[in-house]
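Service request form, structural biology core

Requester: graduate student, group of Dr. S.
Request type: structure prediction, single chain
Budget code: on file
Notes: please return the result as structure tokens.

Sequence provided:
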Amino acid sequence: MAGALVMGRPTVEPVTALNLAEFAEFLHRHLNPTVSAADWVARLRTDWPGERPNHGFLLRDGSEVVGGIGAYYADRQIDGRAEKLCNITSWCVLEAHRQQSMRLAMAVVGQPGYHYTDFSPTKVVAGTLKFFKFQELDERQVVTLNLPWPAFGASRVLHRAADIETALQDDALQIYRDHQAFPWLHHVLIGTPDAWCHVIYKRRVFKRLPSAAVLHISNRGAFAAGWRRLSSHLLSRGCISTQMERRMIDPIPWPSAVRSGFNAKLYQSATLRADQIDYLYSEAMALDL
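Core staff response, request fulfilled:
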């Protein structure tokens, strides 16, 4: 029709230091208003090892931000190999522009050389990512009752920062330091000086009672050997139960129940196996989810 206004398609641009504040304000307004824009900036701007090409991508219609997808990047050593990981986070698009969501996903996963993860996908997001050949991780969770087990065996528990700093070395120490600043993360070492297991957990609520939600177990053998010591320690810290993903542990401690029916977390990789995917250097650590 003559004289009609032709609207341009929204543009996709990387989130950089120049527009991070805009993206953070968008997330504050439209994704989680309980997190201030300043806190969004701080949580997306982590100081982790490796090159960070961007903080994700945003969708702009004229001068207005109408969508975006965050990203965490880290260079990792996994089974002796250097790997580059990208964790997708905080994907939010306004309803009127929802048809542009695929373009944001393409912008992120179109970056070559990365293994990709998404640890908080909705069913709609999961459907989109499976189009890009993302695979599901085992979603089952183990909930175990913490008990005051008597102390026996060689395993010890370290929870003071100074003791952890002294006990860990090299890459293990760097991992601790990279995650130590987040106030919602709790760090414990279980094991012996020859074989420490670094456990990271968040305090959560299960059945209206305090619970420890475990995010990271660095050494399954040391964890299994020292579980009772750790269970007693967590109980002494006020956690009545412990929640762990089934894929993290073997064997399942007693007494426990296995729960299922959760949205599966996703990953895309040509070479990494599911058992090599963990939550270090991801939104699970950097955000108080």
